[in-house]
Design goal:
This protein is mainly alpha-helical. It has nine helices and two strands. The chain has one domain: 3 helical TM bundles of succinate and fumarate reductases. The N and C termini lie far apart (about 55 Å).
């Protein structure tokens, strides 16, 4: 076990943990987006309420949810550890021109912190309410479901809440812009032949996914 702890406490090991947890969270974003887009269906929230019920009652999905929370914590803890270690080993930064790196790569710590604050805000407003808050029920085909759509609809009826969500998605876009390509590079998938493709996919993902997330509260607010 000594080699295991030595590896994951090394610079390469810490970056590997960041890459793997980051890619897992990227995958989670896609799944989460697919579910949330059902909020835009013109069915009074039926599809979203059934989806939310499945997410909270299926044992496999619940396990994946706990894994996701673990990955978020690991990503945050390792990011703090990596940042502190880098500052300790190199208290004076390299004299590198800003032109050699992107704005998002130089500010990943700030972006990550803002995203973490948004996650706490978001989980308190929805996840906590979903599990322990008083929620009305609605009936579909003779079965009762908690009306989580009404909770979301009420939240996005407020301009301030919608604005916070949209701004947070813009911050997420910058975080993903650097994080996507950096994760592949850490895993050794760095080749002249494939780099343009990875960069294109990364940029497209960083724009499209946050934009679709932001579209949901905007449409619901306007409606």
């Amino acid at each position: 076990m000594n080699w295991f702890t030595n590896f994951f406490s090394s610079s390469i090991g810490r970056k590997l943990v960041m890459a793997l947890t980051g890619l897992f969270l990227i995958l989670f974003l896609v799944v989460h987006l697919a579910g949330n887009l059902q909020l835009l269906l013109n069915d009074g929230g039926k599809a979203f309420n059934i989806y939310a019920h499945t997410m909270t009652s299926n044992i496999f999905i619940k396990i994946v949810g706990y894994v996701n929370y673990t990955m978020i914590l690991l990503h945050v803890i390792w990011a703090i550890w990596l940042t502190r270690t880098n500052k300790t080993s190199r208290p004076v930064g390299y004299a590198v021109s800003k032109n050699s790196s992107t704005w998002s790569s130089r500010n990943m710590g700030i972006l990550g912190t803002l995203i973490l604050l948004f996650l706490v805000f978001h989980l308190q407003g929805f996840w906590y309410r979903m599990h322990w808050g008083p929620i009305d029920t609605v009936s579909y085909d003779g079965e009762e479901y908690r009306n989580l759509y009404a909770v979301v609809d009420f939240a996005y009826s407020h301009l301030w809440y919608t604005a916070i969500y949209v701004i947070s998605m813009a911050i997420l876009a910058f975080h993903l812009y650097h994080g996507f390509g950096s994760a592949f590079q850490t895993l050794g998938l760095n080749h002249v032949k494939y780099n343009p493709v990875i960069k294109f996919i990364g940029v497209a993902f960083a724009i499209i996914v946050p934009a679709l997330f932001a579209l949901i509260p905007i449409v619901m607010f306007l409606n």
